Amino acid sequence: MFGSGKDKSTPAVAHAAQAGASSKQIDTLIAQQCTLEGDLTTQNSIKVDGHIQGTLRAEGRAIIGETGVVKGDVHAADLLVLGRLEGNVFAQRLHLQATANIHGNITTESLQVDPGARYHGSVSMKDDGATVVPFAAPGAAAAAEPAAGRAAKG
């Protein structure tokens, strides 16, 4: 009766537990029917199946799902794109799956593009000595650019 030892979890819960054990954990989910207007910053992983209009910054892994749409720049350590992105990408690692569609410039150290993926813009690959800083504070990159320009001119 009480000590049967039989697993009583529902199939959905059991499936979610199995999926979580075999895949990377998602800490934040923007669901398919959700729309977020404004900048979003997370120190963990995030998956976007809905819409974000604004800058997305993720210290962890960011996934733009097949139904996901981001209209703004994305800064992430590890970015997987299956959906649509209208903005620039700054990522240490970027993987565009077959359903990905990007309109914007890409700056990355590692790029994987599956057949069928589309991007419109330029790609800048950083050398071994340089690193992409995906999680810089807003305005930090803009402040660094003029200083670098002065050093090159003077």
TrEMBL record:
Name used for this protein in its record: Cell shape determination protein CcmA
Pfam family, one: Bactofilin
Family to which this protein belongs: Belongs to the bactofilin family.
Cited InterPro entries: BacA/B
